[in-house]
Design goal:
Radius of gyration: 16 Å
Strand content: 25-35%
Number of helices: 3
Number of strands: 5
Helix content: 25-40%
Number of domains: 1
Shape: elongated
CATH architecture: 2-Layer Sandwich
Strand order of the largest sheet: 3-1-2-4-5
CATH class: Alpha Beta
CATH superfamily: GTP cyclohydrolase I, C-terminal domain/NADPH-dependent 7-cyano-7-deazaguanine reductase, N-terminal domain
Length: 120
Amino acid sequence: MYSRDRVLIEGLTVLTTIGVYEWEKTIKQKLILDLEIAWDNKPAGESDNVSFCLDYFVVSQTITQFIESSKFELIECVAERVAEIVIKQFSVTWLKVKVSKPNAIANARNVAVTIERTAS
């Protein structure tokens, strides 16, 4: 059965080494992630049984640990890697990932990329 249900993880804040400039490669910077994950919530909603839920705590921890232990040049790369991990490790069929790098540009509050990916 087709479901348009989603699980949202919003404002997941992670510190990591990210950037293309040499000075950026020596510091930690904040990234903020928003995820929209396709998940059939009906079985959990009907049964009130946690075993039918997407464990968003484990998803968040997995993403946080991966990003914190990695180094990146581009937020585009962060988005791709996060999408790959969530699809593979949690059997997700579709997701949207937004990766924000606040204060990346002096006269902008935020810079971000958003990607949508499906399981192949």
